[in-house]
Amino acid sequence: MKSIICICLILVAISVASHADIGFEVQVGQSYTGNLLLDSSNFQDSYYNTNVNLHYYPFPIAEISLKSEYTYYGELIGLGNIRSGAGITLIPTRAESPASFYISANWEKLDYRQEFDVYNTNDIDILSSLGYRLGDKVQLRAGISYKNTKYINSDVADKESYEFFAGGNFTLFGSNSLDLEGGYSYAKSRFIDEASLNIFPVEPKEEPGNLKSFYISPRFSRPLGGKTGMSISFAYAQFLGDYDPVVYSYATGFLSPWASVWEGNSITLKLKSYLIPKTIINAGAGYWNKNFLRMFEFPDRVKTREDDLSRYYISFSWPVPSRSGMFFEPTLQIEFSNCTSSHRLYDYSNFSVTLGATIRK
Amino acid sequence: MEKIITIFAISIFAMTLYLLPASTASAEDEAVEQKAYVDLDGDGFDDNAPDENSDGIPDDVESGKSKIDEHSFEGGEQIAAFTPLQDIGQYNIDEYLPNSEIFGRLKFSTRAQSSFRGGFDIGNNFGSETGIGCGALSGCAGGVCH
Asked: Domain range spanning residue A321?
């Protein structure tokens, strides 16, 4: 039924967009992964993904977007999900003006099949930012983001966060670009009351808590000859304050609301190249040292987790423009990752391949 | 040990790349007045490089010409690169463009401020830019990122 809805949306998108000031993007992809859950289980699976985005422009300064994305898993069928959402972006300043103002608001709903419906969420994401161009070679920016994640069938991991960022981009000595960025994040959620873990039999109780963090991230980029560009980025993130929360262990693994929350550092190198005619090649290598929040494991243990993660990827895209202004772009992506962890469950490696295509206008 | 090797390899590779020449920053270039190199999206290419058909591949690359070739001199006259008309007399060209095209220009002008690299999801934007199948390739599966 969901696939029929997706096909209908694609057809509607194409037919409507060809007659109005509406843009669309349709993506289909098929992937194989040697480790879907990214842990020592090495669970292999294939999944299929369809994504439709519609963009409507009622005014020159506004974009209204609708999206729908469906993912089907070959083995772990219960993980199949549909993600739908809507958003608006406003840019009320002129393109030539040195000052620019950007605001976007997005709502997204994620629905899993019954087996995983405890992870269904409603997300709200608002971003507002200011930019200022100082001559040709310096651009400054600052902004604030608000995110709210509400778990529809559970309230254990509801999250509300505010994130502030500021940065500058500087052109140095011809074709060298240095981009510096830093930020501060503040999140309100519910964590495990550690005192409740000391009473036998252990029955963990939750309590509200605040998590604070900051990051700094310099990035350097430049061209390498006429057909290749590179960038190298560092990032350092650290939790602030004495609060050292404990979260449920299931919540630090797959589908975790806390799996993307860590402190530590990373270094990544990215390359983009047009060396092969009519082909866009993207490649990257990265290393992360991640310290996650402490996790409670049944029946009565609190464990720490520190990961050393390496990831490598390469992708090939072949954009084919048409005279009607539409694009067709097949893509092949390959990725390898390897992780060693202080928690044996997260010692893993993974190899993934994705074949996909995009049609856009 | 593996961690040290990875960091070392990335650093050596980056330093090697840095020593390679960048064609867009030559003395010939500087002799011709042009817009400064700007890379707000961090792909290593000049964001202002013309891409007439919007396929993501700069026109210089597709035509097999470098910027140096475009600004070469023949018979004492400079062959100027094609640039779209901005204003024709008293008319504002924006009045004749569809909203989507004007918004596209605005979006381009705010590309550095429409997202940020850090926050609680720091590092999740690593991966291919194509966005296809937000699966294992982008560090996410089933819609939730790792």
From this structure: 2-82+136-143+155-360
